[in-house]
Amino acid sequence: MMASVERRTRQRTGSGAVNELPQVGADLTLQRDPVGWLKRGRRYVGPGGALVGIVVVFSSLHPFFIHGQNITNILTSNSDLMLVAAGMTFAMIGGGFDLSVGSVMEATGVLLAGLLAVGVPQLLAIIIAVLCAGLFGALVNGFLIGYARLNFLVVTLGTMTAVQGLVYVVTNGNTLSLSKWHMVAAIGTAKALGIGIPIWFMIGAVVIAGVCLRFTRVGRAIYAVGGNREAARIAGIRVGLITMLTYGAAGLFAGMAGIVDAGRLAAASPTVGATINLIAGAAVLLGGTSFSGGEGGIFGTILGVLLIGALENGLGVIGVSDFWSNVVTGIVLIVAVGLDQFQKARTRRRFTRESTEAGKAGEPVEQLAAPVGAYEPAAAIATPPLGPRPADG
Amino acid sequence: MTVTVNGRDPVPGSASLPALLALESIEKWYGGTPALSGVSFDCRPGEIHALIGENGSGKSTLLKVASGEIRPDGGSISIDGRHVRFRQPTDALRSGIALIPQEVPLVHSLTVAENISLGSLPSRSFGIDWKGCRRQAKAALALLGEHELDVTRDVNMLTADKRQLVAIARALARGQRILLLDEPTSSLSLSQANRLFAVLRQLRHQGIAMAYVTQRLAELEQVADRVTVIRDGRVVAAMDVGQADAGQIAELMVGRPLGQSSGSGTATRAGAGTALLEVEDLQMLPSLRSASLTVHAGEVVGVAGLEGSGASELLAALAGVGSEPHGTVRLGGEPLPLNSVRAAMSRGVGFLPRDRRLEALVPALSVAENMHLSELSSLWPPFVGLRRRRRQAAALARRFSVRMPGIEAPAAALSGGNQQKLVMARVLARNPRLLLLSEPTRGVDVGAKIDIFRAVRAYAQGERAAVVYSSEFKDLIEWCDRIVVLYRGHTVGDYPAGSLAEEDVIRLAGGAIATRPEGA
Q1: Domain assignment of residue B16, yes or no
Q2: What is the nearest CA distance from A368 to chain B, expressed in angstroms?
Q3: Which of B15, B55, B508, B494 shows the shortest CA–CA distance to B246?
Q4: Which residues on chain A are in Cβ contact (under 8 Å) with B472?
Q5: Which candidate, B57, B116, B80, places its Cα nearest to that of B234?
Q6: Into how many domains does chain A fold?
Q7: Which of A165, B9, B301, B428 is 20–30 Å from B171 (CA)?
């Protein structure tokens, strides 16, 4: 007893001296931290710069490129891509990928055609079709990936193939005309405030997705699950449910894209979504969302979609074959993501080095931590002030 | 202080043989800190030479030097009397040194035979000589006295001890004569460990030289011929096994001169309250077999145990993050479900996981978000409330003196100690009744360590209590009221912290049972 009490006393005196150091970290202000904002903005320098570059190059090659009409063209023709990419952003931030979005898009159009054919009112049919797409994503893809813990590529490759097959079974490979349904056809032709309906769809989707990811608990939980699944689980987050929701979002937005395309074509085509899953993935990656999850956002995805859209359109405007646009898009993707990796690798390396080395026995720990004894009761926290250890017995 | 006495001769003639592997005056510095200073260690053919020391004493660093993973800053290595220099691990492999780490690196989807002859598959003029491959594997395993193992089975179908045998057999098949065994029994059961000891003893007769790194004192008598005790990067004793008893070696490990008695006596528990946590016969295989303990309100209980003792698994099981735990656990008199993190959280259990990088932090997210992480366990109300989150996080950061570039900076940008304080802040902010902390001071500097333990002491008052697992026994004795010791998955002791000295805990955790009667 004596020996141990003596040791303890010695220790307490030792730390007592450290206790008298001035408090560090108390000057943390409650204002926005400009450094953090700048850093987050830096993520968009790459894709933003590339977009500006493309615009400058193509408009100098051909002035029609920045004509209002052409810009409307770019936006309208990429509205389905934007919708699908918005949904894909959820899946990818959550650490996954959804290959089935193209098939779901086609299936939504076919479902819409079917509902209309049996006499369901147009608006109701649209809503049901979109909701079915979302439910399919959540309950089939999401359940199998989030709860049954199957690999996301396996699951979505499977549903992509199966749903595509189903679409062909139902349509026999034929395009179903929807031109006699005025409301559906109007999606492709009508304008509100001088802007086409597909663009409004796109704006609405982007705003909803952005708000959801940035400001809601579900959105932040998606980042946590994608960033570190195990830490999220141990912190009490419902990892399975969150994963399910990300695929639900991917399905829902793909469904909206399916409706937009059905309207633009005034038909349900079994081939509209053929390659959109990979292009949408490329757009999300171009926007700075990483393939491993936990990073990125809708703003980046907007830039990525515009980048791909502008590139494709610009090559067309200057008279280069369509086929080249895929070549260029592929190269731009690798270059952009490659540059981004370099930047991120630096941060990550630092983090890994610190944590692993500090954890290793026999090696010195880093000396960056704050001085001791800086605890102070704070109104917001319901813990008692921290004092010296109570005496034994 | 160095004790060197020529004693018994384990395998006839081996003491007179020159060392197969000799490390002399090895120096290794990290920054300005010496990790190894003038460490000498050798292995003679047919001998098992144990290297024992606490966490951080330099055991692992020395093994890494011997296996070519790191280059020493000074000293020399010789094999069979010839001076060698390792530039990379393969140099050591070629010189006949095989490192058998805790987690055996095998290709799990290949068969035993393929693993044993990996990299040197016997080939015929056309394709691979599978028959020869199997024969080679069988021969290597036979050297270990293992005749039953089916060499055509996939390695992932094997138990941990068989995998270890496969790794050793591979080394023998490659003609390696020096085995470096790094805590080989930490993931084995008692009977598996005994079988491994038998294999190692047999290898002695084949002239294999073995370095055996351990923290378990009980194993010295069972398997080793000689023992070197290492502390703070220096050799403090080298002797034949049997020249000192477990107590003396434990004292050498912590640095108390031989012969001086440790602190002893009876201490009363501080603020004994009602039983808050009652654990009966808790099991979580493979490492946790049967743990029982009671934690009273107002108490800080330390859980001590070596790697593989089940101590950290005990905390994980209580927090609901383990897989398939069994047993009776009551919290505040009511049964605590063990299969759900969320259920444990809602009943007032707060858990600080062992590895903050893998289990606690989302590195890319901001400090504020990481502090807020547990709030996301409920998805209602739908919106986060960024301003409120910022305010709370800033208050928490200030209270726990988390030093950082800013509240919106990614958690990855913080130092280890500050990351740990961040996680502490998150856990304490939920005001749990029972605080479970697994290695709370791993990789943090001294200042942050004191901060963290003070916070725990101050928190565990009134109706609240804390359970701390740490591999640094000194800290547990320093800061806890009671120490519960685990050895091979069983609780083997429950003592008032004041009655224990560090060497007592080392002895208990190492399986060298104390003479003192159990209980307070």
Answers
A1: no
A2: 6
A3: B508
A4: none
A5: B57
A6: 1
A7: B9
| Interchain contact, A25 vs B395, CB within 8 Å | no
Span A90-116, pLDDT tens digits: 999 999 999 999 999 999 999 999 999
Q: Are B436 and B430 in contact (CB under 8 A)?
A: no
Task: Measure the CA–CA gap between B131 and A170, rounded to whole angstroms.
Answer: 55
pLDDT of amino acid A349: 64
A238 min Cα distance to partner chain B (Å)? 6
- Chain A residues lying within 8 Å of B428, measured CB to CB: 381, 383
With CB atoms and an 8 Å threshold, state whether A347 touches B410.
Answer: yes
pLDDT of residue A387: 39
Backbone φ/ψ region at B310: left (φ over 0), alpha (ψ -120 to 50), beta: left
Distance between CA atoms of A277 and A291, rounded to whole angstroms?
14
Helices (H), B319-472: 341-346, 367-372, 386-399, 416-429, 446-459
Do B50 and B155 lie in a common domain? yes
For residue B499, the chain A residue with the least C-alpha distance is A1
Can you tell me the distance from the alpha carbon of B315 to that of B312, in angstroms, rounded to the nearest whole number? 5
Contact B324, B317 (CB under 8 A): no
Whole-number average pLDDT of chain B: 87
Do B36 and B142 fall into the same domain? yes
In a domain, B272, yes or no: yes
Same domain membership, residue B295 and residue B155: no
* Contact (CB, 8 A) for B315 and B351: yes
Report the largest interatomic distance among the alpha carbons of chain A, rounded to a whole angstrom.
95
CATH number, position B55: 3.40.50.300
A295 CB neighbours in chain B (<8 A) are: 364
Of B218, B171, B226, B174, the closest CA to residue B199 belongs to B171
Which value does ipTM take for this structure?
Answer: 0.81
How many Cα neighbours within 13 Å face the side chain of B110? Answer: 15
Flag if A362 and B56 touch (Cβ within 8 Å): yes
* Residue B436 lies in domain: 265-348+432-520
Task: Please give the pLDDT value at position B265.
Answer: 35
Residue with the two structure tokens 């080095």: A353
- Predicted local confidence at residue A28, as pLDDT: 40
Check whether B92 has a pLDDT greater than 80: yes
- Asked if B426 and B436 sit in the same domain, the reply is no
Closest CB to B406 among A3, A33, A224: A33
In a domain, B204, yes or no: yes
Inside any domain, residue A205: yes
Distance from CA of B389 to the nearest CA of A (A): 11
Domain check: are B408 and B460 in the same one? no
Residue that finishes a domain, picked among B228, B252, B276 = B252
Encode pLDDT of B118-173 as tens digits: 877 777 777 788 888 899 899 889 888 888 889 999 988 888 888 888 999 999 88
Instruction: Report the distance separating Cα B238 and Cα B4, nearest Å.
Output: 6
Residue at B115 is within a domain: yes
- Band (pLDDT 50/70/90 cuts) for residue A348 is low
DSSP B304-346: E--TTSSHHHHHHHHTT-SSS-EEEEEETTEE--SS-HHHHHH
> Minimal Cα–Cα distance from B501 to chain A, Å?
8
Nearest CA in chain B to A6: B263
Please state, as a whole number, how many other Cβ atoms lie within 10 Å of the Cβ of residue B324.
10
Task: Indicate if B126 and B203 belong to the same structural domain.
Answer: yes
The answer as to whether A57 is a domain residue is no
- Give pLDDT tens digits for B455-475: 899 999 889 999 999 988 989
Both tokens of B471, joined, read: 């591999």
Closest-CA residue of chain A to B476:
A8
Q: How many domains does chain B have?
A: 3
Smallest CA–CA distance from B383 into chain A, residue? A216
Query: In sequence order, which residues have a C-beta less than 8 Å from that of residue B45 and are 6 or more positions away?
Result: B14, B17, B20, B177, B207, B208, B209
Host domain of residue A241: 67-305
